[in-house]
Specification:
The complex is a heterodimer of chains A (250) and B (243). Chain A is an alpha/beta fold. Chain A is built from 5 helices and 11 strands, in the order E-E-E-E-E-H-E-E-H-E-H-E-H-E-H-E. In chain A, 20% of the residues lie in helices and 31% in strands. Chain B has 2 domains: 39 residues, no CATH class; 155 residues, Sulfite Oxidase, Chain A, domain 2 (Alpha-Beta Complex). The chains are: A alpha/beta (250), B alpha+beta (243). Chains A and B meet through strand 3, strand 4, strand 6, helix 5 and strand 11 of A and helix 2 and strand 1 of B.
Chain lengths: 250, 243
């Protein structure tokens, strides 16, 4: 195993997008970026003038095919790093990062082992970010891997990437996006209106016989519930990959 | 290291954490930063909670303190009924060692209070665990007579593995824990039993541990073969391969 160190690099902010009231995407120019797989993350480091440093991991939202790296960051109230990124960072500013990190919670359209297995993606809140990299990568690859995304948010205005998700799925019948809103649903809401539970999963999953691959990312409670229910519904443990997004001190 | 009289000549990352803290009040701080040419994020400051003495001495570089107990695992949480649970030690020894759950609970227990550090950046102070010291388990093995054994691989329900040098689990450094904070460890946190090796990043403290395989050669475990550091010392920030 090669032991070349993952070097800290200076990334320059080229664009900032406000995704929701508390979430921003940062599009970064990283001159020495090699490549990554959809689902991987980077470590971001902030250094104070006295040498104190803080680091956090952020999932990469951009697919490997695009030049710039996108990180999508949820502002954690009382957090240390995320409020600096969402409140202080401007276009033209620089931050230190290194990566890509994580070789397990990843998906590639060009992986020979896929066997056209359908994808079942389940996101809670900002847990959508690594799954969005997979959806974007899948769309760019031109491979119509049958894919369903079940995406839980508290309120409609907190759905991240809503326009893009609706646009991609409207133009691709092999991608279906199913939303659920747990706290409040607008009039004429077409999606679900509760936390993800076993009946909702039973309604939306690919059947185990189709040998689906499942990825779920979100708060611990959601991820635990989804992974347990999927096993009860016949999914093999090794076909379920999980990633937790705890808003812990972010 | 003989260079304590000139701490600004050392780069930040090679300095012991307490030295780094001591120097931050010195007039040399800005100069040091220039010397190491590290990028300063304008306006980013250490908060009061990161400036107190407990934080400085007990939180390794790049970590933050959390009061919750985050859950991180790569797949679903396995649930093995206790009547099917066994713990075994094998590899390079005359006879495999095996304990049932009831036998395991009858072994001498220890309660320890330790700080834990997860590679995903959180640290949690003063966590209280009860379990069996790995020294107790290895007492029945005449390791001194097995000079070829240098490492072990912890194996777990769900297929997770992690590798450790043998000296890192001996001499009161590692336990097979089955209680957290006086209560059985919940499945999400690795119950019924998990390895506890608090001086290394917490992915080495394998959840749902079922045994230890003693081996002559080091061999990467699950995360170690996916780009994470082979050893994982949090005070040296050995997060990823090459760190």
């Amino acid at each position: 195993m090669a032991t070349r160190q993952l070097k800290w690099q200076l990334a320059k902010v080229v664009e900032i997008r406000k995704e929701t009231p508390t979430v921003k995407s940062f599009i970064l120019d990283v001159p020495d970026w090699t490549t990554h797989l959809a689902g991987q993350h980077v470590d971001v480091r902030l250094m104070a003038a006295d040498g104190y440093q803080a680091q956090r991991s952020y999932s990469i939202a951009s697919p490997p095919e695009v030049t710039h790296l996108m990180l999508t960051v949820e502002r954690i109230e009382d957090g240390e790093v995320s409020p600096y990124l969402t409140d202080e960072l401007r276009v033209g500013d620089r931050i230190e990062l290194r990566g890509p990190i994580g070789g397990y919670f990843v998906w590639s359209a060009f992986d020979d082992k896929n066997d056209d297995s359908p994808l079942f993606l389940v996101a809670g809140g900002s847990g959508i970010v690594p799954l969005m990299a997979m959806i974007r990568h899948r769309a760019n690859s031109g491979k119509k891997v049958p894919t369903r995304l079940l995406y839980s948010s508290a309120y409609q205005e907190e759905i991240i990437y809503r326009q893009e998700l609706d646009h991609i799925s409207a133009n691709d019948s092999s991608l279906r996006v199913i939303y659920t809103l747990t706290k409040r649903q607008p009039l004429n809401w077409q999606g679900y209106g509760r936390r993800i539970d076993r009946p909702m999963l039973a309604d939306t999953i690919w059947q185990p016989a189709e040998k689906p691959r499942a990825f779920t990312c979100g708060p611990t409670r959601l991820v635990e519930a989804v992974a347990n229910c999927l096993q009860e519904l016949g999914y093999k443990p090794e076909s379920i990959k999980t990633e937790r997004f705890g808003p812990t001190g972010g | 290291m003989g260079i304590s009289e000139a701490p600004w000549k050392q780069p930040y990352h090679s300095r012991a954490p307490t030295e780094g803290i001591a120097s931050q009040q010195s007039a040399g701080t800005i100069f040091e930063v220039f010397m190491t040419s590290q990028f300063i994020s304008p306006g980013f400051k250490r908060r009061a909670r990161e400036a107190d003495s407990a934080f400085k001495e007990r939180i390794p570089p790049g970590q933050y303190e959390t009061k919750d107990f985050p859950v991180l695992s790569a797949g679903p949480t396995p649930r093995t009924p206790l009547d099917q649970w066994k713990f075994s030690i094998y590899g390079g020894i005359a006879e495999d060692l095996k304990w049932t759950w009831d036998e395991f609970l009858r072994l001498p227990r220890e309660t320890v209070t330790v700080d834990i550090h997860c590679v995903t950046k959180w640290s949690k102070l003063d966590t209280v665990w009860t379990g069996v010291s790995v020294d107790t388990l290895l007492k029945e093995v005449n390791l001194e007579a097995q000079s070829g054994i240098g490492y072990l691989i912890a194996f777990c329900d769900g297929g997770y593995t992690t590798n450790l040098p043998l000296p890192d689990v001996r001499g009161g450094k590692a336990w097979i824990a089955y209680e957290y904070d006086g209560k059985p460890i919940t499945p999400e946190h690795g119950g019924p039993a998990r390895l506890l090796v608090p001086h290394l990043y917490f992915w080495k403290s394998a959840k749902w541990v079922r045994g230890l395989k003693l081996v002559a050669q080091n061999k990467a475990g699950f995360w170690e073969s996916l780009g994470y550091h082979d050893y994982g010392d949090p005070w040296k920030e050995q997060r990823y391969a090459g760190d």
